[in-house]
Specification:
Blueprint: E1 16-18, H1 24-29, E2 44-51, H2 53-80, H3 93-101, E3 110-115, E4 125-130, H4 137-150, H5 162-175, E5 183-188, H6 192-208, E6 212-217, E7 221-224, E8 228-233, E9 236-240, E10 242-245, H7 249-255, H8 257-268, E11 273-275, H9 280-284, H10 287-295, E12 305-306, E13 317-321, E14 331-333, E15 339-342, E16 352-356, E17 361-362, E18 367-375, E19 379-388, E20 397-403
Parallel strand pairs: 2-20, 5-6, 5-10, 10-11
Antiparallel strand pairs: 1-2, 3-4, 3-18, 7-8, 8-9, 12-16, 13-14, 13-16, 14-15, 17-18, 18-19, 19-20
Helix pairs in contact: 5-6, 7-8
């Protein structure tokens, strides 16, 4: 391997290779200058991880099985009416069941986060599933590829057909809703990172054949229970038959109940397809982790997870809020119930789940690595985040990969 970093004291170190930093001018040309970073914060690592084809295949296999288990668990929740186990009240049941049973409401995009995969065989474990407002698309697709091409490993493979697969999923969505006009509104919450993910989807929607594609902030969207979803433009109100939102369903349920009621009327009156569909709120709940383990305890990819930490007595464990983002309100305890690391945040009011702690792969600089596996029409990409600590949060770096 060319330019391999010599850190022979650790297995992860042996697979780290250097990629030159992408220039600010190049990022500006790509519309991704936000990723350039500052002296205080540099999100894009200049390292790449070298993986074997077998290791990439192991991540794909883990993702494939976990997605199957998640689908089966979701069906169980709906049939057994177990919404309370996931932190929802029963009012969500009608919309979840409706969209689950109507083929036009395809799940569009998600990312599974895993521990392991860079060390011993069989070490891959599901940490959580981002099944509604998935992010990290521009860096995992375009920038990871750019890093590979700028390194000494341009000829190597990379598990990265994220963009192509999202285009395919958009086409599948259109095919499943041939009675709908190919018009889509993509809405963000105003954060720069959200906007970049929306821009990424904008290009994919055009390539997929949508005839009308627009972007706006959430507060600009107009919702009519009788007519659907609109955006006011200089020419007047424009109606859209598809709407992609960076607003999590669980947030609308708890914080915007009037909006939830509007969306319920719009969807059940068949006035619009909302992406991701309402049943993806089940995917977002960390309560799903304990349900998965309850239903499928023999899966090699699932960690013991419970609603009471007593069940994990004598083992290290992680406390996670049912609904949370970016590692907020996470606490890690050792086997003696001593706190090892804690993150504050805005989600401490949530009920908690307790998942057995598994150490993430680590390099000799004490950085931990978490893998993210993407899927849309199929499982389509892999990237990593790393941080010096025990909790992957908003300060983590992005790390790409190549295949040896």
């Amino acid at each position: 391997m060319e330019e391999a970093v010599v850190r022979q004291d650790h297995m992860v170190d042996k697979r780290i290779v250097k990629a030159p930093k992408i220039s600010q001018d190049r990022l500006r040309d790509m519309g991704l200058e936000w990723f350039y970073g500052t002296s205080e914060w540099d999100y894009l690592s200049e390292d790449l991880l070298v993986l074997s084809e077998a290791e990439v295949g192991a991540y794909q296999q883990a993702a494939d099985e976990c997605l199957d288990l998640i689908s089966r668990a979701t069906k169980h929740v709906i049939e057994k009416f177990r919404y309370a186990d996931l932190g929802f009240n029963s009012r969500v049941a009608k919309l979840v069941e409706y969209t689950w049973n109507h083929k036009g409401h395809l799940h569009f995009l998600g990312r599974l986060d895993f521990a392991g995969g860079l060390g011993e065989e069989g070490s891959i474990k599901l940490l959580e599933y981002n099944g509604d407002t998935c992010s990290m698309m521009p860096e995992s697709s375009a920038l990871q590829f750019e890093q590979k091409m700028g390194s000494g490993f341009a000829g190597n493979g990379q598990f990265n057909h994220i963009y192509q697969d999202i285009v395919k999923r958009f086409r599948e969505l259109l095919d499943a809703n041939q009675d709908k006009h190919p018009s889509i509104l993509l809405s963000h919450m105003g954060h720069p990172e959200d906007r970049l993910n929306i821009d990424f989807l904008y290009a994919a929607a055009i390539d997929a054949g949508f005839e009308v594609v627009d972007i706006c902030a959430m507060e600009q969207v107009v919702f009519s229970p009788d007519e659907g979803i609109f955006l006011e433009k200089e020419s007047g109100y424009v109606r859209y038959d598809f709407w992609y939102k960076m607003l999590p369903w669980e947030y609308t349920v708890s914080e915007e109940p009037e909006l939830y009621d509007l969306l319920e009327q719009i969807i059940m009156s068949d006035l619009a397809i909302v992406i991701n569909p309402p049943y993806s709120m089940i995917y977002q709940s960390k309560g799903l982790l304990k349900l998965l383990y309850e239903l499928f305890p023999e899966s090699p990819y699932l960690l013991p997870t419970y609603s009471n930490p007593v069940r994990l007595r004598g083992r290290a464990f992680v406390e996670k809020p049912y609904f949370g983002l970016e590692g907020e309100n996470i606490r890690i305890f050792d086997r003696n119930n001593e706190e090892l690391e804690v993150n504050s945040g805005d989600f401490g009011h949530n009920p908690m789940v307790y998942q057995e702690y598994v150490a993430l792969d680590k390099d000799s600089d004490e950085n931990i690595y978490q893998a993210g596996v993407f899927h849309a029409s199929s499982i389509n990409g892999l990237s990593f985040r790393r941080i010096d600590g025990l909790i992957i949060d908003e300060d983590a770096e992005f790390v790409g990969h190549v295949i040896e």
